[in-house]
Specification:
Elements: H1 36-52, H2 58-74, H3 83-97, H4 110-119, H5 131-152, H6 158-184, H7 190-193, H8 207-230, H9 236-253, H10 256-270, H11 280-300, H12 302-309, H13 314-319, H14 322-331, H15 347-354, H16 372-379, H17 381-398, H18 410-429, H19 439-452, H20 464-487, H21 496-511, H22 515-528, H23 533-545, H24 550-563, H25 569-579, H26 586-596, H27 601-609, H28 619-625, H29 629-637, H30 641-654, H31 663-676, H32 679-688, H33 690-706, H34 710-720, H35 735-744, H36 749-761, H37 765-776, H38 783-795, H39 799-813
Helix pairs in contact: 1-2, 1-6, 1-19, 2-5, 2-20, 3-5, 3-17, 5-19, 5-20, 6-8, 6-9, 6-18, 8-9, 8-10, 8-18, 10-11, 10-18, 16-17, 18-19, 21-22, 22-23, 23-24, 25-26, 26-27, 27-29, 29-31, 31-32, 31-33, 32-33, 33-34, 34-39, 35-36, 36-37, 37-38, 38-39
Length: 816
């Protein structure tokens, strides 16, 4: 028996880059070529979804879903789904469907029973409080799952893989260029971000999602450039240039996540077993390229670096990042339904009921928990999350190890590695963001998973393959056409899409004066989405216009407040609505707004108190509400006569020492008291109460000045004002030089003050007084000159003019 002779490693001939290391393994099942138009359909699905589904309109999502169904029919699965992938995916869908199961009253969470019993919000008796919304979520999840299954069972060969990756690179580069043009040209693409105008750009409302797409696209572009170069194709410069708009768009988009994913993805691909491990030379080239890109980032990515570090350092930036707080509060929702979840589509309304108020007046709804996987765990339950992660693990196993001994060619391994790294970037980004909840990135990642699938992992077809083909195609076409019809305005399939369309229809009908039909549309919205707070708010506002019973209107407003328990803005909007119909009913909304946003309590109170003269019935309840000193002062500013006296007496009875008032508030109170109340009583209090006179001396001084007691007023002012120091200059101390300089520059107040000080030092009091008087007449002269002038006038016994100068000094220096 002959033994195989081993060749020493030092004598082995290295393989050239364009040379295959071994013929394909016989275990790899051959496939028939796919028609070019079928490949075009497949790659069009993610590109179309990325381009038009940014604002999540039902028409765009329906069109993309129909195209996916057509692509699955044109390029059907050729191999069966591995059981270790198919089973977890089916379990994930099954667990998500559990939200539609019935639930008894004993198993309802406390917030559901409170909404039902205290506010009369009717929810179906299912695990999900909004089963129609959950059903739409399950349908969307099923569409994504079927598209993923069709992609990984298609069995792409090397030419198909190369073609699809190249088209994806060109498509993503085109989207990056279009985004830059739209951004810097100040254009607006309505199907990218809807009517919202945000300070970043791209086809998604979340800049991290767009930058994640660009990072994955850059990895594919590097792979296609490398592949075309070593295959000696003329197209390699095209793919190399495609990297530039992707990298430029990441820098302009200021996404920290995009930068991390970009360099992580390139590093993973360059250091993978299919490329950089071949030689030290290639390792050095890869490292140099990364360093060049990092240098470009450091030069042109200053805005992103500022977002990384923040103005107070990176530790402070991370600790103050809002998503950390969202993570923490979102995790608290899992124990409510740990295994089967809250039901798909229910995170936003349920989170709003449990989140800690941010003390912001704006309506800031949190749409997601800043993580795909946490989102699935909350809505679908931990069982669905475990099934999804299990499926992800086995899909990753299906990519192979990208090693020399895997039975496929080197070129094919490079392309599969790039696609697999693109999938990995989206998968791991899902832990800190929500790329997989966008149809564009979901279909993109699923196609990449199919392109990364190892040829040796293909399983022979059986009866399940045609079942998957026709099921996936039929399901996608059904859902897609249904959503297209919903997008056209017909609510044939209840869900989030139809509820949103009916809400917009209600707004249009109300604006056109058709309030009755608007109420009917809102009733349909509430039956489909009973936790939608703005539907109750709008129904209450329209019902008030129709003259419906006030109790019915108040019930709807209270439901809206219960479902949005944090924002204060819409509470004030409710108050204004009541103001035109029943002013007293605006006060509960005002109290709620102040409770939610105490920092802006004065502004809210002022807006309602300004209507006291229009609606006198508001006076007494507004006076009772004004417990805070700021609010009490606002009330006193708007009343007079007996109303003022009563309010002032109540204030002094509750706070006789005014210790809870700040000095500026005390002064405002004393000025109001002097002008609208018993001024003699105030003067007596200021004379005998040192704590009050510290803040109100100016009122007492003006009173004495009005009685001709200017000396007493001046002495009081000098007692309570801080004596300022005169500014110093670098001018010489020569009297003659200073005199000539001031005569030549009579508008130079600093020269004049220098001359004044020298004259005082030399005993020239008369000349100094004249100089100081001239300085005080110069516009924008230092305020300290006015105080000094008042002192000199008082020394001469001219207390009347001294008092006027003190008042001018107080105004200029903002003295209390």
């Amino acid at each position: 028996m002959l033994k195989r002779q081993r060749i020493p490693k030092s004598q082995r001939r290295p393989l050239e880059e364009d040379e295959e290391d071994s013929p394909p393994s016989k275990s790899i099942l051959p496939v028939a070529p796919t028609p070019w138009w079928a490949l075009l359909l497949m790659v069009a699905v993610p590109l179309l979804a990325i381009s038009i589904c940014g604002n999540r309109s039902p028409f765009a999502i329906g069109l993309t879903t129909v195209l996916a169904g057509g692509a699955i029919f044109a390029a059907p699965p050729r191999f069966r789904v591995p059981i270790w992938v198919g089973a977890p995916l089916l379990l994930m869908l099954g667990f998500a469907l559990c939200g539609l199961l019935p639930v008894g009253d004993a198993n309802l969470p406390a917030w559901r029973t409170t909404l039902r019993d205290a506010f009369g919000i009717i929810m179906p008796g299912t695990q999900s409080p909004q089963p129609w919304i959950t059903l739409q979520g399950v349908l969307m999840l099923a569409v994504g799952t079927l598209w993923l299954s069709a992609c990984i069972t298609r069995g792409f060969d090397e030419p198909e893989r190369r073609t699809l990756l190249q088209v994806l690179v060109l498509g993503i580069a085109g989207i990056a260029i279009a985004s830059l043009v739209v951004h810097y040209g100040d254009y607006e693409v309505i199907f990218w971000q809807g009517t919202e105008r945000i300070d970043y750009y791209g086809p998604f409302t979340n800049r991290n999602n767009f930058s994640g797409l660009l990072a994955s696209g850059a990895v594919l572009a590097f792979a296609c450039t490398y592949d075309a170069y070593h295959r000696k194709r003329w197209s390699w410069p095209v793919f190399a240039l495609a990297i530039l708009p992707m990298f430029g768009a990441i820098l302009a988009n200021t996404s920290r996540m995009g930068v991390v994913l970009f360099f992580a993805g390139l590093g993973m691909w360059m250091m993978s077993g299919t490329h950089a491990a071949r030689s030290a030379k290639r390792f050095a080239v890869s490292t140099s390229l990364l360093l060049i890109l990092a240098t470009v980032f450091l030069i042109y990515g200053q805005r992103i670096l500022q977002r990384f570090t923040g103005s107070e350092g990176i530790v402070s930036t991370l600790s103050s990042d809002g998503r950390i707080n969202i993570f923490q509060q979102s995790l608290a929702l899992i124990p409510q339904a740990p295994f089967i979840g809250l039901g798909l589509g229910n995170f936003e309304p349920v989170y709003a009921l449990h989140k800690t108020a941010s003390s912001e007046g704006m309506i800031t709804r949190t749409a997601h928990p800043e993580s795909d996987w946490l989102w699935l765990g909350i809505e679908g339950g931990l069982l669905a999350l475990a099934a999804a992660l299990t499926a992800g693990y086995f899909i990753w196993r299906g990519f192979g190890k990208w090693k020399k001994s895997d039975g496929s060619g080197r070129r094919d391994r490079r392309l599969r590695a790039a696609a697999g790294i693109g999938v990995a970037l989206l998968f791991f980004q899902g832990f800190v963001d929500t790329p997989l909840h966008t149809l564009g990135l979901t279909t993109f990642g699923a196609l990449l998973a199919g392109l990364a699938w190892h040829p040796g992992k293909r399983l022979l077809a059986n009866i399940s393959v045609p079942i998957l083909r026709y099921t996936a195609c039929g399901f996608c076409l059904f859902c897609g056409f249904a959503w297209l019809v919903v997008g056209s305005g017909e609510a044939v399939l209840p869900g989030t899409f139809s509820a949103k369309m009916q809400l917009e229809s209600a707004k249009t009908l109300s604006s056109a004066g058709n309030e009755a039909d608007a109420i009917e549309a809102l009733n349909k919205v509430i039956s489909t989405q009973p936790l939608r707070w703005d539907a109750y708010y709008m129904r209450a506002a329209i019902s008030l216009q129709l003259g419906r019973p006030q109790q019915q209107v108040m019930d709807d407003f209270s439901r809206a407040r219960a479902l949005e328990p944090n924002a204060a803005t819409f509470c004030m909007q409710e108050a204004f609505i009541w103001m035109e119909h029943s002013p007293l009913q605006s006060l509960p909304a005002l109290r709620e707004a102040i409770r939610r946003d105490p920092r802006n309590a004065s502004d809210y109170y002022r807006q309602i108190a300004d209507n006291i003269h229009r609606f006198p019935d508001l006076r007494e309840p507004l006076r009772s509400m004004a417990e805070d000193p700021k609010l009490r002062l606002l009330y006193l500013e708007r009343v007079s006569g007996s109303d003022f006296q009563v309010a002032l007496r109540e204030l002094l009875d509750r706070h006789p020492s005014l210790d809870n008032f700040t000095p500026p508030q005390k002064l405002s109170l004393f000025e109001l008291w002097y002008s609208r109340g018993d001024k003699n009583q105030l003067i007596r209090e200021l004379q005998h109460n040192p704590n009050w006179s510290t803040s109100g001396w100016i009122v007492l001084g003006r009173h004495w000045a009005g009685e001709g007691k200017f000396r007493d007023a001046c002495e009081l002012g000098f007692k309570h004002m801080r004596q300022p120091s005169l500014p110093t200059t670098s001018e010489g101390r020569d009297l003659g030089q200073l005199t000539r300089g001031f005569l030549q520059n009579p508008a130079d107040s600093l020269r004049g003050l220098s001359l004044y000080q020298v004259q005082r030092q030399q005993g020239l009091d008369t000349e100094a007084f004249t100089t100081l008087r001239d300085v005080t007449r110069i516009p924008n002269a230092p305020a300290s000159a006015l105080y000094e002038y008042a002192v000199r006038l008082a020394e001469q016994g001219d207390y009347s003019r001294a008092w006027d100068s003190l008042l001018a000094y107080r105004t200029r220096s903002a003295e209390p």
